[in-house]
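Materials and Methods. Structural model of M23 family peptidase. The 562-residue sequence of M23 family peptidase from Chryseobacterium rhizosphaerae was retrieved and submitted for structure prediction as follows.
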Amino acid sequence: MKIFYKLMLIVCFINSFSTQAQHNYPQNYFRNPLNIPMQLAANFGAVRANHFHMGLDLRTNSKENLPVVAAADGYVSRIKVERYGFGNAVYITHPNGYTTVYAHLNKYFDRLDEYVKERQYKDEKWEQDMTFQPGQFPVTKGQLIALSGNTGGSAGPHLHFEIRDTKTEECLNPLLFGFAIPDSVAPIISGLYWYDRSFSTYEPGANGVAVKKAGNIYTTDLVTVNSPMISFAVKAVDKANQGFNLGVYQAELVMDGKLIYSFSIDKVSYDDTRYQNGCIDYTKFIRDKMNIQHLSVLPGMKLQNYSLPNLSGVINLQDKEVHHIEIILKDVNGNTSRLATKVQLNNNGNSISSTSTTIKPNEGKTMTTEHGEIVFSKNAVYDAVNFNMYEKPNAEENGVSNTIVLHHPYVPIHDKYTLKIKPNRKLTQQEKDKVVMLLDYGSDKDAVKGSWTGDWVQGQFNRLGTVQLIVDHSFPSVMTEWKDGALINTGTLRLKGNTKVGDIVSFRAELDGKWLRFARVKDYFVYTFDEKCPKGSGEHTLKVTTVNTAGNTNTQTLTFQR
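The predicted structure was written out as tokens:
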């Protein structure tokens, strides 16, 4: 019977894996976009804040300005220039139905770089999102298209590389296209967790189980649970020979020889990438910086092409017998780790029930306090939440409302909710014009201008925390790294943006009366000296105008010599 049980497990696993792994992606069509060996700093599907990682992060030996080349013949179909996100990016459309994306670049190839620069000066706008026709910028496989960098949301020099389906714009797992990246290391499992599913994975939350390792086989002691409805999750990483913590490609959960859940991270669209928050223990990720992936489907998680249909992973223990559990993790190269454990129902514990303030997946909900109202859409939550909303006094300087407490930041919200707040005193029209809604979600703050309807101001957010109204009369500004009138011999001008509440939402610089192109690098504005301001050109006047979230405008006049 033991031999038969093991054979059944193997057959079940092979059949389910072959079902998921039937891809017709071209092998070896795309080349390495760098001229150094491909080494991964992050893979497709790795967990990020509020999204899956949608491509490969290729190491550039901690250097910038390495040559980036076209992965195959095609044409430049799009470029982006943005403060966060991709920074500077190139999109190349290929004749085989795929588009490759290259991001965090420092510079485009010369002809394209000049074209983008001309458009920026014509529009008097640094940020751009431009599309091109096939004949404008054709490229051949291996042709230089850019220099690597550290722009946008990058935290260090590297190249972000994606492969997309040109028609659907879905991002595909590049490792399924046959790139030669050595990998003989199986995923590493460091934790097992179970959840009481009688109400929600958020309440009471994760129950940790110690894991023991022998080779690529992991075990635990008998898992005793106090609820007949449970699910499992696993803490695991893939090292892939290179030391970085990569995401797990595929996982399967087998109970008593029967497959009950499986996921593989093959393709994801940017429209759906936020569903990652329903695939992980979000509370552990935000509060404890731990990446724990659910081996079950949360009721509000609607990510397509991720888990096998009709396999929820939710276990209904109808007896108090011991049940065999096996968790199988694989990377794209087939390196495999297995965790074997047993689960048994003990006496039933006290279950959590819904209340009048419960938000449920696939149902909208409106809740109110004396001075606040929140409206959730039917897509707001991935699992049930007994939502706690109340008011407390506002201790902020220039605060003009009570602080509205919206549960806590450790429960994710999928889409934007609408929040209305009434000030705690009568405001003049001038004060209303300078009110911002300020959300504090623990690790950072977010401010929006909001809109007024009578005595109520309305705004939208997609995180929970505490929200209050602030009257902001402060002015934004920029700080220089030189003394006024000084001679500048460096290659750049750097201005640091500063605002008390919110962000600088508009920046304009004019050199001697003409618009000057500054790039925005996080909180800095950077101009790289070029023909617009050559050496030996004498004294210059730089006029900088900034606007913050509240709409306050400040103009500063700076001088320097060149």
